[in-house]
Structures are given as structure tokens and as C-alpha cells.
Design goal:
850 residues; alpha/beta; Rossmann fold; six-stranded parallel beta sheet; binds 2-deoxy-6-O-phosphono-alpha-D-glucopyranose
Length: 850
């Protein structure tokens, strides 16, 4: 591609994003001005940048609605099997750029704004992230929505509309401080509320077994108000729905108060029931047994199931009126995927509806429930597994507890039948755990009530089969399967890295955008000098852009010729950010010891939030900041080493970081990270990985070959063997001088002049209670980092490995993941067929999936 001479030329270039269409450009300008005038009630003298953002968002939205209505109409008319993805989290980030891209109108909008004298990037930066998730699990749900729409599946995401998403992280004097995320302060242009479709949800009350069946009575009712968010597929005119529920007090809420004349009190108490969807619980991989969280879990499940059943019953031709009366065909028409155990109340709630409301018998209800539901496990960390106290169930969901008891009785009979007299198995497999107060084990409930259980990377699935859920696997081997995670190439390549996308498209065309395996063709370019240089140039431009951004946003200066080394993910002990910090200290000490030696310059950056109640994680952030203070201000070190904590890491920041990364750190202890998805995004964008044989790293290595990735550390069997023989972290401290020096510095206050004993707890854990084996993996990690530094000295060799990474990342598309779910779990068929564009007359009827 030739270099554009002017800004105007740049806009005229043919890129993967397509070219501007003259008619569209003028239409967009008109739409933009109309919305500025009629929707925002402003003119260009008084409009703010935010007004321009909203005017643009509404203009783009206008191009969604026809496709959205038409898609949903097709679903009603064709009655395909529907897929329901239920998740407590959707970590969406921004929507504007993604929508323009998927609708194929980016270039025309770009041109329209250029002609209007507005800077599109400035407008895009106005959008608040929809941070309705914590990390990987929530982002996966968002990537899956994109792929389900792109593959033409009649799919729906169901979630909660938290008024406050993941908190905003501020770093004050090195400490994390949380601020509320008021993402709805100015409203969201993408959601459409549907107050006409509110659904009542019951809580508390008591169960009455009568001759006419079971009644759940004297309940407290909260309404679920749906907000619909459009999910456009890539260039296929499909627009699916993500339906987010918001809690709304019933009109009759606190009738007693109203009746007794306490009108004001009654109005004020409405807030209490609306608290259900007030805020996202900010824990990643950690179970916090709060009643409000259990309410959230039941709220999403009960509202969603009523909606699913209403849609199942509804007639064709777009009417919401019921026609179906029998539930026999339910599993042929409905697939429900549980994103972790968080929505696993689907199982007892479906049983309750089928039996208590619809009058089905237990056996039939159970058969339908099991055939409909499937469960994705996301973690094997014991502290993350949901185990709700029976007492909490008893008061909040008394009927569900009864049903869970019956499920368990029948299940225990099955176990007894298979292993007579094996009481240990019964105890281990029971849905009700007895030790330490009775609790409901939600993973056991989800496995028993589902026809499919999947892990999210090959190694993770092996661990759940042979360790975590071994007994269940021995009972039902056919239920267990692997579905390695994936990421959407639209957001995570085309949107965030248009420069690289164009370099790729120049060589292999643009089919890779929704057929990511096509990237394999790039392998043949590995020795093509011009291609190597183009790849290097794209990376360098991204690094420059990131350096400018981080200078402006965080007032941090970085040298764009140094290696950009990133670890971006939630702060968690098992992810071992501390190991990264130990490497930085080691390099620092080496520079100080040999100030004249040649060192590969690096900017090591760590970004991620700590759960507000996770004290050790917050301490780790403080340590990182303090090490940075010493290293970054030492004149002997200069530009050879920088250590930076990136404040408030989130989806929109990831989109800036990932294209600019040279090195991706994926260094969790083997056997702890279920999959990881950041690892895939960085690989796809040509960063090299230093990592352990954990999660999807294993499959990444298989795809690219072991010479293109820096693998270090113990394997899962080696970790097991270490614990079996007795792990003594101190022995590593005593044997490895560089490790000892680093630990001593942390211990003696070298990094905390303000308080010498500040990090004693960290050191104590490393030496005495090193649960994630940092000490055991340190030596190999440092050696691997040395190999990284050496390779970076040879830019061409480095770039060749980048190309091999990009070329090998096809497997990690969420399109591949969803295609596998569709085939192996949901029994639906993805399609490449485009729906007609509603803005054009229909030429022929279009067949859609199933
Ligand atoms: C979305 C788009 C709208 C459509 C509605 C259908 O809000 O055009 O009418 O979905 O919702 P259900 O009837 O399928 O719930």
C-alpha cells in the first residue's frame, strides 16, 4: 500500500474497513445534523464534544434499527431453535466504533465527520465503557454475542443492567482507590427500555403443598424491566438482542405502608428492591456469599426463563400471543448455556415452572430441563466455586430448596446404583455439603442438571475431568467436553489495529475477518522482507500512538523504541504479577551492578484492578508502584528499564495496549488459569508470549510451534509432584542469590522508605506459604526473560516470530468456539448467508439457521 500524502488521501485509501460511499456520506451528514437539532436540541455554537458523540451514535443507531426489527421478525417467522446465553457479566466496553464497523459504514461516517470538520477519534473517546463485567468471563460473553450474530444464530444474550459497572480504579500514592462507575450518567444511546414487557419476580414467602399442587405464597415481588441492546453481526445484516434486566419496584410495593398512611416511607422503600441491579459484584474468580448476589442470580434466571417460555409459546408471524401448549419440543427449540454456575438456578427454576405452574410430572420436567441446559465451567480455584448456605435459600427461595433436595435425593440414588456402599463418593458428589454448615454446591447442581459440561481450554477440561469433577466424569463421561475460548477478530484486530489489518489484507484479502484460519497463509510470507518491514512498521506506529495516549491520559512518558512488555489482567495471586515484579527487581539490580553493560531497554507495564476486599492484591499494586518509583527515578538506569502501573485498565484501554505490545506475559502457575483470552488477543496482534503451560497457552504453543513462544516453569504434573514431595519455598531463596537479593530488598524496606515493614506480609507469604509457587518458577522465568531480551536485539528475527504468532492465531477466534458450541452442544447450524438489507427491497426469501 502506498503512503498517503494528505489526510484526504488517507480517507480515500481502500482499506479493510471499506470505502466511503458518496450517497451514504451525505445521508450521514443529514442524519447527524438532524439528531444534533431534534434529539439533542443544540446547534453547533453550543454543542459539546459529548453532544457530537451522541448525535453520531444516534445516526449510527438509525442504521441498526431496520436490520434489528427485520432480524427479530425473521426469527418469529422461521421459528429456528433459539440459543440463550445467560451470564451475570457482559464486559462490552464501547459500542460506537464496533457498530459502524460491523454495519460496514465506518469509512462513510469517517468521511462525513471529516467534511463536518469533526475529529472522529475525539468523539469515539467520549463513549463510556459499558463495564458490566470483571474480566475474562464477562469479555468472553461479549465476544460470544458478536460471533453468534456474525454466524447468523438466532441467539440472545441475557444479563443484568447494573447501574454501576466495574469500579473506576484510581491510584493514589500507590494504593488502589475505588470510585463508582456512573456509566449511565449521560444515558446510553444503545439501549431500548421495554417497560411494556416487565416481568414480576418472587422472593421469600413460603411453600404450600395443596391437593391442587404446590403454591409459593406470600412472596415479595420485584419487577424485571428489560432493556434491549442490539448486537450486530459482521456485514450480514443480522442484529441479535442482548436483553439486560433492571429491577423496578412493583407499583404495589409495600402495600402495608401505603395502607397505613405511610406514603412517603413506602415511596422511599422502593429503592430497596431496586438495589438488586444497582451494582456489579467486583470479584473475579472469588465467591462472596452475600444475599444480594443470590438475589441477582435468581432475578436474572426467573426473568429470563419467563421470557424464554413466552417466546417458545408464541405464534409465528411476529405475534407475541401464545400458540404452543406442549413442552415436549422445548429442547428442540431452546438451548440454554450457563456462563459459569452464576445462573445455575435455571435448573430448579425450570423444574418449578414445569411442575408447579405448567403441571408436568417430575420425570418429564427433568428430562426437558437436562436436555435444554448446558454448563460452562470457568475455574478450578476452590475459593471461586459457589456454595450457598442452605439457610439463605430457605428464606429467599424456599421452593427452590425443596426442589434441589429432591434432585439430590434422586441423584444420590443414581450414585448408589453405580457404586453401592461407597459413602465417600456420596458425600463428595452430594449437591448438599454438610461440613461447616450446610451449603448448596452450585457446580454439582449445574452438572447434574445439564446434558453438557465444558471446560474452556484443553488442559482445563482435562483438570475438571480428572481432578475437580472426577466422580462426575466417571459417572457421565459423555457429558464432558472441551470448548477452548476465543476472541472476536472484529474488535480485537480490525477495530483496535486497523494498521495491521490492512497489512494482512494487502497480502491475503479480507476473508480472515470472519474466517480467521485464513491467517495461516501469512506463514508463506515469513521471509518476505517487505512484508516483515510492513509488520514492523505497523507495530511501531501503534507503539507511538500508545506512548502519546499514555502521556496524555496518565501523564507517563515511555520510550517507543524500548520493548513494550505488558501484563494486563485482574490482579490475583495466582496470575503472579509478583513474579513479574521480581524480574524487574532482578534486572534493576543487574543494571546497578554492571551499569556499563548492554541491556535490552524495556518498559514493563502492569494493568489490572484488584477486588476491593482483596487486601493482598492491593498490596501487590502498591509494591509495583513503589518499585516503579525507585527504578524509574534512578539516573543510572535511565531509559533501559521502566516499570509502570497502568491506572484503570478496562476494555477501551486494552484496545490501545494490545496493538502496541511486544511482549505478552501469561505467567500463571500451571493448572490455575482456566484459559485466558488476553493471551489470544495479544498473539493475534503480533506480541510474543512469555508464559507457562497453563490454560490456552498450551494450545497457542501447539498452533505456532515451541520456537515462537517463550515457555517456562513447571507443568501441572510437576506442580503436583512438588507438593507431593513437600514444597519448601525457602530452599529457592537460599540457593538463588539474585532471588535472595530481591526478596531481601522488599523485606528491608528498600522499596518502601516510607514504612520499612510495609511489605513484610508479601515476603512472609513467599517464603512460608507460597501457594502459587513463585519461588519454584523464578529461576526458569528469569532465564526465559533473558532469552526474550536477547531476541529483541534482532528485530528481523523478532518480527518473523510475530508473523508466526499472527499466522497461527486462527484457532482462537470466537467464531470457531461458537461453531463448536453450535454443533456439539446446541444442535444449531451457523450460516454464512446474509439477511437482506432492510434498506433495499427484498428479492428473495432467505433461509436462516435451522
Ligand atoms: C428487540 C428488537 C425489536 C423486537 C424485540 C423482540 O427489542 O424490534 O420486537 O426485540 O423481542 P421478543 O418479542 O423476541 O422478546
Amino acid at each position: 500500500m502506498t503512503t498517503p500524502e494528505t489526510e484526504y488521501d488517507r480517507r480515500k485509501q481502500i482499506s479493510v474497513r471499506g470505502i466511503a460511499q458518496v450517497e451514504n456520506v451525505s445521508e450521514f451528514k443529514k442524519g447527524f445534523n438532524r439528531h444534533l437539532h431534534f434529539t439533542l436540541v443544540k446547534d453547533r455554537n453550543v454543542a459539546t464534544t459529548r453532544d457530537y458523540f451522541f448525535a453520531l451514535a444516534y445516526t449510527v443507531r438509525d442504521h441498526l434499527v431496520g436490520r434489528w426489527i427485520r432480524t427479530q421478525q425473521y426469527y418469529y417467522e422461521n421459528d429456528p431453535k433459539r440459543v440463550y446465553y445467560i451470564s451475570l457479566e457482559y464486559y462490552i466496553g464501547r459500542t460506537l466504533t464496533n457498530t459502524m464497523m460491523n454495519l460496514g459504514i465506518s469509512s462513510s461516517i469517517d468521511e462525513a465527520l471529516y467534511q463536518l470538520g469533526l475529529d472522529i477519534e475525539e468523539l469515539e473517546d467520549q463513549e463510556e465503557d459499558a463495564g458490566l463485567g470483571n474480566g475474562g468471563l464477562g469479555r468472553l460473553a461479549a465476544c460470544f454475542c458478536d460471533s453468534m450474530a456474525t454466524l447468523g444464530l438466532a441467539a440472545y444474550g441475557y444479563g443484568l443492567r447494573y447501574e454501576y459497572g466495574i469500579f473506576t480504579q484510581r491510584i493514589i500514592n500507590g494504593w488502589q482507590v475505588e470510585e463508582p462507575d456512573e456509566w449511565l450518567r449521560y444515558g446510553s444511546p444503545w439501549e431500548k427500555s421495554r417497560p411494556e414487557y416487565v416481568i414480576p419476580i418472587n422472593f421469600y414467602g413460603r411453600v404450600n403443598h395443596t391437593a391442587n399442587g404446590v403454591k409459593w405464597e406470600d412472596t415479595q415481588i420485584v419487577n424485571a424491566l428489560p432493556y434491549d441492546v442490539p448486537i450486530p453481526g459482521y456485514h450480514n445484516n443480522t442484529v441479535n438482542t442482548l436483553r439486560l434486566w433492571s429491577a423496578k419496584a412493583q407499583r404495589s410495593f409495600c402495600l402495608n405502608f401505603f395502607n397505613s398512611g405511610q406514603y412517603i416511607q413506602a415511596i422511599m422503600d422502593r429503592n430497596i428492591s431496586e438495589n438488586i441491579t444497582r451494582v456489579l459484584y467486583p470479584n473475579d474468580n472469588f465467591f462472596e456469599g452475600k444475599e444480594l448476589r443470590l438475589k441477582q442470580e435468581y432475578f436474572i434466571v426467573a426473568a429470563t426463563l419467563q421470557d424464554i417460555i413466552r417466546r417458545f409459546r408464541s405464534s409465528k408471524f411476529g405475534s407475541r400471543e401464545p400458540i404452543r401448549t406442549s413442552f415436549e419440543t422445548f429442547p428442540q427449540k431452546v438451548a440454554i448455556q450457563l456462563n459459569d454456575t452464576h445462573p445455575s438456578l435455571v435448573i430448579p427454576e425450570l423444574m418449578r415452572i414445569f411442575m408447579d405452574v405448567e403441571g408436568l410430572g417430575w420425570d418429564q420436567a427433568w428430562k426437558i430441563t437436562e436436555a435444554t441446559c448446558a454448563y460452562t465451567n470457568h475455574t478450578v480455584l476452590p475459593e471461586a466455586l459457589e456454595r450457598w448456605p442452605v439457610t439463605m435459600f430457605e428464606s429467599l427461595l424456599p421452593r427452590h430448596l425443596e426442589i434441589i433436595y429432591v434432585i439430590n435425593e434422586k441423584f444420590m440414588d443414581v450414585v448408589r446404583g453405580k457404586w453401592p456402599g461407597d459413602n465417600d463418593r456420596l458425600r463428595h458428589m452430594s449437591l448438599i455439603e454438610e461440613d461447616g454448615g450446610k451449603r448448596v454446591n452450585m457446580a454439582h447442581l449445574a452438572i447434574v442438571g445439564s446434558h453438557a459440561v465444558n471446560g474452556v481450554a484443553a488442559i482445563h477440561t482435562e483438570i475438571i475431568k480428572h481432578t475437580t469433577f472426577r466422580n462426575f466424569y466417571e459417572l457421565w463421561p459423555y457429558k464432558f467436553q472441551n470448548k477452548t475460548n476465543g476472541v472476536t477478530p472484529r474488535r480485537w484486530l480490525l477495530l483496535c489495529n486497523p494498521g495491521l489489518a490492512d497489512v494482512i489484507a494487502d497480502k491475503i484479502g479480507d476473508r480472515f475477518v470472519n474466517h480467521l484460519y485464513e491467517l495461516r497463509q501469512l506463514e508463506s510470507q515469513i521471509s518476505n522482507k517487505a512484508f516483515i518491514l510492513a509488520i514492523m512498521k505497523a507495530k511501531q506506529e501503534n507503539k507511538l500512538r500508545f506512548a502519546n495516549y499514555i502521556q496524555k491520559a496518565n501523564n507517563v512518558t515511555v520510550d517507543p523504541s524500548a520493548m513494550f512488555d505488558f501484563q494486563i489482567k485482574r490482579i490475583h495471586e495466582y496470575k503472579r504479577q509478583l513474579l513479574n515484579a521480581l524480574h524487574v527487581i532482578t534486572v534493576y539490580n543487574r543494571i546497578k551492578k554492571n551499569p556499563d553493560k548492554n541491556f535490552t531497554p524495556r518498559v514493563v507495564m502492569i494493568g489490572g484492578k484488584a477486588a476491593p476486599g482483596y487486601h493482598m492484591a492491593k498490596k501487590i499494586i502498591k509494591l509495583i508502584c513503589n518499585i516503579g518509583n525507585i527504578v524509574n527515578n534512578d539516573p543510572v538506569v535511565g531509559n533501559r528499564l521502566k516499570f509502570i502501573f497502568l491506572e484503570n485498565y478496562r476494555v477501551s484501554m486494552a484496545e490501545k495496549i494490545i496493538p502496541a505490545a511486544d511482549l505478552s506475559q501469561q505467567i500463571s502457575l500451571a493448572g490455575t488459569e482456566a484459559s485466558g483470552t488476553g493471551n489470544m488477543k495479544l498473539m493475534l496482534n503480533g506480541a510474543l508470549t512469555i508464559g507457562t503451560l497453563d490454560g490456552a497457552n498450551v494450545e497457542m504453543m501447539e498452533e505456532m510451534g515451541k520456537d515462537n513462544i517463550f515457555i517456562f516453569g513447571m507443568t501441572v504434573p510437576e506442580v503436583d509432584a512438588l507438593w507431593a514431595k513437600g514444597y519448601n519455598p525457602k530452599s529457592f531463596y537460599e540457593r538463588i542469590p539474585e532471588l535472595r537479593q530481591a526478596i531481601d530488598q522488599i523485606q528491608n524496606g528498600f522499596f518502601s522508605p516510607e514504612q520499612h515493614d510495609l511489605f513484610h506480609d508479601i515476603v512472609h507469604n513467599l517464603l512460608n506459604n507460597d501457594r502459587f509457587c513463585l519461588m519454584a518458577d523464578y529461576e526458569e522465568y528469569i532465564k526465559a526473560q533473558d532469552r526474550v531480551s536477547a531476541l529483541y536485539q534482532d528485530p528481523i528475527e523478532w518480527a518473523k516470530k510475530c508473523i508466526m504468532n499472527i499466522a497461527s492465531s486462527g484457532k482462537f477466534s470466537s467464531d470457531r468456539a461458537i461453531t463448536e458450541y453450535a454443533k456439539d452442544i446446541w444442535n444449531v447450524t451457523p450460516t454464512d448467508v446474509k439477511l437482506p438489507n432492510p434498506n433495499e427491497p427484498i428479492k428473495q426469501s432467505v433461509k436462516i439457521a435451522n
